[in-house]
Amino acid sequence: MLGELGVPAFAFVNGLALGGGLEIALNSAYRTVDSSAAAIALPEVFLGIIPGWGGSYLLPNLIGIENALEVVISNPLKQNRMLKPQRAFEYGIFDAIFPPANFLEDSLRWADGVLNGTIKVERKNEPGRIERSVKWPVAIKMARGMLESRIGTMPRSPYVALELLEKARSGTSPKDRAEGFAREDEALAELVTGDQFAASMYAFDLVQKRAKRPVGAPDKELARKVTKVGVIGAGLMASQFALLFVRKLQVPVLITDLDQARVDKGLAYINDEIDKLAAKGRIDSDTANKLRGLVHGTTDKSEYADCDFVIEAVFEEVGVEQQVFGEIEQIIAEDAILATNTSSLSVAEIGSKLAHPERLVGFHFFNPVAVMPLIEVVKTDSTTDAALSTAFVVARGLGKNAVLTADAPGFVVNRLLAKVMGEAARAVYEGTPLLTVEKAFGPLGLPMTPFQLIDLVGWKVAAHVQDTMAHAFPERFFASENFHQLAELPRSWRRTSPGGSPAGARPAQKVLKGAVGQTPASEDKILRRVQDGLAHEVRLMLDEGVVPEVEDIDLCLILGAGWPFIDGGASVYLDREGASQRVTGDTFHHPVIRGL
Ligand code: 3HC
Questions:
Q1: Of 344, 306, 328, which Cα lies nearest the Cα of 233?
Q2: How far is the CA of 256 from the centre of ligand 1 (A)?
Q3: Residue with CA at minimum distance from ligand 1 atom 53
Q4: 2-192 adopts what CATH topology?
Q5: How many CB atoms lie under 10 A from the CB of residue 38?
Q6: Which residues contact 296 (CB under 8 A, 6 or more apart)?
Q7: What is the 560 CA–ligand 1 centroid distance (Å)?
Q8: Quick one: CATH architecture of 413-545?
Q9: Do 213 and 555 contact (CB within 8 A), yes or no?
Q10: Are 47 and 136 in contact (CB under 8 A)?
């Protein structure tokens, strides 16, 4: 063991140090880091395991419990966030940081200084007595509370990591150390043989490999070069698009709306967000100025003339979208690409009035636009390879993963989210208390309850998606007219509990009254209904060819709706819960993906 060599060991980290790489460094007596190293992290919890090789024991004893909680638990749960070297140095993970030019020489000289006593290493975050006795247990308790409210109690690894961090408080004697390492070994042995790790490895493979080589994407040489982007609309969604396009593609971006007041509101939002990015240090002030200069807002649609890629974010109604595109088509170049962000409407129908429907492609984002890494690229029967290829290249330029889907109601993600939200709504309208409904969905381990999700996407949008699905498949999807009445209420009247459920608001209760029945469902029944409904829908989507394989459905759910790795998206969970077998007489995976 590096920590027990009898002479001081030094680790000089000059590149990615994730998991094992960082753990080797932690076992050394001293550490330096190259300021250009790509990332530093302990991502194990993200994969359903815990940092071993002393990672869970050594880190809190080096940088304090609060920092360690962030590195070991919080960051992995935030879509596997990693540290930049400077930040890792500030936390105290490294004793010195040097620029890349002479990293090895600088590190060796520094090590020499440490050994001959001319350099004294100070570890300001190393926990003292008070931290161990007072701050440590409080931090653990708070972290447990936050975990329970954020991710429920289904995922095992964050809680196992929490226990290990809690016990690492005992101290740094050789006995404490040996016990700390032994606890990690035991925990790892249990986790790596479990279902959640098996599902996580499947999900990790999808995100690492399948997401990067999208199935069905045409040759990227066919893509049209995008030198100017047009966004139709200046509302919140449109402004979020404009911000993302300008930030990532750094090309001129045009937004338009019906009147100047709306345009100004959109521009104000975009400039405000650019200011925030600069304040957070995500972009420097030169870039901020450049981005502001690239965004232009007007009511004059003739300015779309030189846009190569025009996306709409207008009111979701086929007639409105047809009319908007019809108007823009008169203005743009022959070979410019049109994209619709429709959440669930038929892309072919939206394009049916165009002179050139072959240039229209579905380009479906997920809320929050800046955060969710998926774009569903939707192909109609007439979409050309050039339009598709442009969509894939643009998605990549935006830093998103694109998945090709057929032009089917709700595509992939919204079809399955509509199942979840529909089953939640069905239970509410049967008369089930909202808390029971929220709890019933807990075992799925989704990042948000159905009601939080409705709040996130907006009640009107949610009601619209629900209607589209119930219209397309009336026997399988639940929708209620009453949902539209709720959606009309001011936001503050609906949002009353942390779950965003309309539980306490009187106006919401008034609207619900009369529409709510007297036959509440049990948690088990609700869960079973949603499991079976999802399994059925996934099977149908595969049979209909919405995407070629179940892996694509899982990938969409993971990237577009944050469905957990520990469920393998959905199919692995549905297999292991027996839902796919119950409903379709077969499992999605052969053999079923399970632990030992
Ligand atoms: N708006 C904007 N940004 C947000 C946000 C919001 N509502 N919520 C979180 N963020 C940002 C945070 O600012 C933070 O950014 P930073 O890295 O720059 O600081 C980042 O997201 C992470 O935030 P948190 O640490 O708070 O993240 P959480 O771990 O709580 O995750 C979440 C937040 C990513 C929203 C997660 O809860 C999630 O994945 N939820 C599921 C979302 C989902 O299902 N979306 C799809 C809905 S369907 C849809 O949009 C299609 C449409 O057609 C209807």
A1: 328
A2: 26
A3: 343
A4: 2-enoyl-CoA Hydratase; Chain A, domain 1 (3.90.226)
A5: 12
A6: 252, 253, 254, 255, 303
A7: 10
A8: Orthogonal Bundle (1.10)
A9: no
A10: no
Query: What is the Cα–Cα distance from 419 to 150, expressed in whole angstroms?
Result: 22
Strands (E), 249-400: 253-256, 295-298, 309-312, 337-340, 360-364, 374-379
367, 375, 400: residue to mutate for ligand 1 pocket, most atoms within 8 A of CB = 367
Q: Looking at the CA of residue 560, tell me the nearest atom of ligand 1.
A: 46
For the chain, helix (H) and strand (E) counts, in that order, are 28, 13
Domain residues of the chain, as ranges? Answer: 2-192, 220-406, 413-545
DSSP string, 464-519: HHHHHHHHHSTTT----HHHHHHHHS-HHHH--STT--TTS-HHHHHHHTTT--S-
Residue identified by tokens 């170049």 is: 333
Same fold, 2-192 and 413-545: no
For the four alpha carbons of 473, 555, 203 and 423, in that order, the dihedral sign comes to negative
Q: Is 448 in the pocket of ligand 1 (CB under 6 A)?
A: yes
**Cis ω before 368 (30° cut-off from 0):** yes
Over its length of 596 residues, how does the chain's per-residue pLDDT go in tens digits? 677 778 899 999 999 999 999 999 999 999 999 999 999 999 999 999 999 999 999 999 999 999 999 999 999 998 899 999 999 999 999 999 999 999 999 999 999 999 999 999 999 999 999 999 999 999 999 999 999 988 888 899 999 999 999 999 998 999 999 999 999 999 999 999 999 999 999 999 999 999 999 999 999 999 999 999 999 999 999 999 999 999 999 999 999 999 999 999 999 999 999 999 999 999 999 999 999 999 999 999 999 999 999 999 988 899 999 999 999 999 999 999 999 999 999 999 999 999 999 999 999 999 999 999 999 999 999 999 999 999 999 999 999 999 999 999 999 999 999 999 999 999 999 999 988 999 999 999 898 999 899 989 988 899 999 999 999 999 999 988 888 888 887 766 555 454 444 544 566 777 777 788 889 999 999 999 999 999 999 999 999 999 999 999 999 999 999 999 999 999 999 999 999 999 999 999 999 999 98
Atom of ligand 1 at shortest range from CA of 77: 29
Q: Is 124 exposed, middle or buried (0-12, 13-18, 19+ CB in 10 A)?
A: exposed
**Distance from the alpha carbon of residue 563 to the mean position of ligand 1, in angstroms:** 12
Using CA of residue 278, residue 283, residue 285, residue 290, what is the dihedral sign? negative
Name the token pair of 178.
Answer: 């040996």
| Protein residue with its CA nearest to atom 43 in ligand 1 | 561
Ligand 1 atom, smallest distance to 341 CA: 53
CATH superfamily of 220-406: NAD(P)-binding Rossmann-like Domain (3.40.50.720)
Q: d(Cα 93, Cα 464) in Å, to the nearest integer? A: 49
Cα(249) to ligand 1 centroid in Å equals: 22
First-last CA distance in the chain = 30
Q: Report whether residue 458 contacts ligand 1, using a CB cutoff of 6 Å.
A: no
- Between CA 411 and CA 416, with CA 412 as vertex, the angle to 5 degrees is 115
**How close is the Cα of 448 to the center of ligand 1, in Å?**
10
Which string of DSSP letters, residue by residue, matches 382-427?
A: S--HHHHHHHHHHHHHTT-EEEEEES-TTTTHHHHHHHHHHHHHHH
